[in-house]
Amino acid sequence: MSLSRKRKRELKKLKSYAEDVLHDQKIVLDRAKDVLLEAGVQAKHLSDEYVAPRVNDACENVRPTVERGIRSAKQAANSVRRTAAPAVTAALITAVNALDAADNPGARRASESIVRLGTKTGFPVKQQKKKKRSAGGVIALILGAVAAVGVAAALWQTFRADDELWIAAEDAE
């Protein structure tokens, strides 16, 4: 397809207009970029001068209330921990001892898993071992029984009905 000279000239002129418009747009966009950069700098200055001090003052006014709330929440958590820990530990120990008492392999596995759970959650469960009586404990038990019998005999002798002091007190009335 061949174009006439007139059309070629018009297209060439249109092309130069388009290039001029593109050049002008680049200049406008560069100026807009410079304006936006300067606006950002000015916004930062205004923020530093006016907004930041107001935000800091507001934070300083709110800080005591927030700190008081945090302190009371920590105290509540500590009191719950203090009251709940012994109960949880006692329940775990009871469960472990009951499972240990059963001669069942399944119960033994459950006991071991409870001990692991207690250790993992911060409530260490120490299994109570069956206490063996030693010779000293047996001797102390026997001596305690003998002492109790001696006290009972002394009381019997003191409050016997045929005692003269008691009879004399009854006659005087």
Give a concise summary.
With 173 residues, the protein is mainly α. It has two domains: 5-130, no CATH class; 131-173.
Describe this structure in words.
By secondary structure, the protein is mainly alpha-helical. It folds into two domains: 5-130, no CATH class; 131-173. 85% of the residues lie in helices and 0% in strands. It is elongated, with a radius of gyration of 48 Å. The N and C termini lie far apart (155 Å). The chain crosses the membrane at residues 135-156. Keywords: Membrane, Transmembrane, Transmembrane helix. This is DNA helicase.
Order of helices and strands: HHHH
Termini separation: 155 Å
What fraction of residues sit in β-strands? under 5%
Can you tell me the residue ranges where pLDDT is under 50 for at least 5 consecutive residues? none
Number of DSSP helical runs: 4
The assigned structural class equals mainly alpha
Strand element count: 0
> Percent of residues in helical segments?
over 70%
Q: How much is the radius of gyration in Å?
A: 48 Å
Largest beta-sheet characterization: none
Mean pLDDT comes to 78
Counting structural domains, the number is: 2
Shape descriptor:
elongated
Which key features would you list for this structure?
mainly alpha; 2 domains; 4 helices; 85% helix; elongated
